[in-house]
Amino acid sequence: MVSSSSSSRSSPSSNPSVLIPPTMRRTMEEVWNDISLTTPHHERLLIPSDHQSYHHHHPASSPSFKGMILQDFLAGPLNRPRTISPHAVEELPLLPPPLSPTLPRTALSLNSGLEFEYLRPHADSHSNSSSNGQNTCFIPSAISGAIDGPPSPTALFSFCSKNRLPENSAVGADRYRRRMINNRESAARSRARKQAYTNELELEVSRLKEENAKLKKHYEELRSAMVAQQLKSNTLQRSFTARF
Amino acid sequence: MSRDPLILGHVVGDVLDPFARSVSLGVTYKNRLVINGSEFKPSAVVDKPLVQVGGDDLRIFYTLVMVDPDAPNPSDPTLREYLHWLVTDIPATTNASFVNCDVGDTGREIVCYECPRPASGIHRVVLVLLRQIGRETVFTPEMRHNFSTRRFAMEHYLVPVAATYYNCQREAGTGGRRFIRDDRC
């Protein structure tokens, strides 16, 4: 049963009737297949009905981890393949009762709640699966990796907008777009500023070079005039200031 | 694409129309000359600068206008332009001499100098020298904000002859977006 499965973590059980936490070697699909074959009804509810078909469409050959690619992750919680720890399965009934997939909106909100619960435990949770007595989930490190960093606007967006009412998502999209436009304008201004300053400096440099050349030339002329003057005045000369 | 810094920095578009430089203008804050597009902190521009006005004919008088076209925020310049300083009846001088725009010296300061203190964003502060047609032809504007140099020049028959600008942002570093308005993120 469930309790016995936790002890047999390292060796994938050949008994399909037992829920086993996924290991590094097993793909998500295998796990899901096991679950789907044997899962009792209340566990089934946690998985949206379209999930399985989704899963079959995406072969493990695509760049993915645990049978999931980043785009699918970002697509939203409904499409998210979920691995459920044996312990988590027990605790799930304690949460607000999961509704059937026929009410997607409320299921969505529940899922998002679950989602954020699941996201807190870290990537190490899937490595020491057997020992947990907590409500942990085995999150592929791809997911946890994506969450650990600052969520990109699109990721945050698919989180926020899809879990709320349609009006909120429209406003959110609007705000996001406006922010993007503002950012683009700021970036353009910044580039213009930089270009203007660079040009000014270049003009200044050429101006100074020109002035420098002119002054040097003037200096040379003066100098040669002075030298000529010196040569002339080496001999005694009658000066006009003499009284006589 | 012109290489004139005034055009690249959009001073010519936002504040002035294209004009021909005919008089030299030098603005110095605490021994540092203003170069187009250079950065000044508010602490560096607290006091009014020393302004050098060139020009050949001593009978011609000039008006100096200092405006901030990016008030209150360059992304949303609703108060464009904010008038910081307005000095009129500055006599033309030969290039080498100083013109100290203190009241009573040369030039009449009809809007006293207000230090630029940008709250957010990186603001351009533009100084424009305009040629007057005569003396005492310029009158005090009512408000500092929503000033328009173009309109002002048209009303008082002024012609721009020189301009320069610098950038100013908050004292404590990044003048990036700090506040979240209601309608934008």
UniProtKB/TrEMBL annotation, chain A:
- CDD domains given for it? bZIP_plant_BZIP46
Keyword set includes Nucleus: yes
Q: Any coiled-coil ranges, and where?
A: 191-225
Query: What's one GO-annotated cellular component?
Result: nucleus
Instruction: From the Swiss-Prot or TrEMBL record, state where the protein is found.
Output: Nucleus
Q: What is its main location?
A: nucleus
- Matches recorded under Pfam families: bZIP_1
Where are stretches of biased composition, namely Low complexity?
Answer: 1-17
**Segments of this protein annotated with the region Disordered:** 1-22
Single GO term (MF): DNA binding
Q: Domain of life, per the record?
A: Eukaryota
Keywords for this entry?
Abscisic acid signaling pathway, Coiled coil, DNA-binding, Nucleus, Transcription, Transcription regulation
Q: Which InterPro entries would you find in this protein's record?
A: bZIP (IPR004827), BZIP46-like (IPR043452), bZIP_sf (IPR046347)
Q: Which PANTHER family match?
A: CAMP-RESPONSE ELEMENT BINDING PROTEIN-RELATED, PROTEIN FD
Name of the protein this chain belongs to: BZIP transcription factor
Automatic annotation (TrEMBL), chain B:
> SUPFAM superfamilies this protein is in?
PEBP-like
Protein origin, superkingdom: Eukaryota
Show the taxonomic lineage: Eukaryota, Viridiplantae, Streptophyta, Embryophyta, Tracheophyta
This chain belongs to the protein called Phosphatidylethanolamine-binding protein
Matching entries from InterPro entries are given as: PEBP, PEBP-like_sf, PEBP_euk, Phosphatidylethanolamine-bd_CS
User: What does the sequence similarity comment in the record state about its family?
Assistant: Belongs to the phosphatidylethanolamine-binding protein family.
The record ties this protein, via CDD domains, to: PEBP_euk
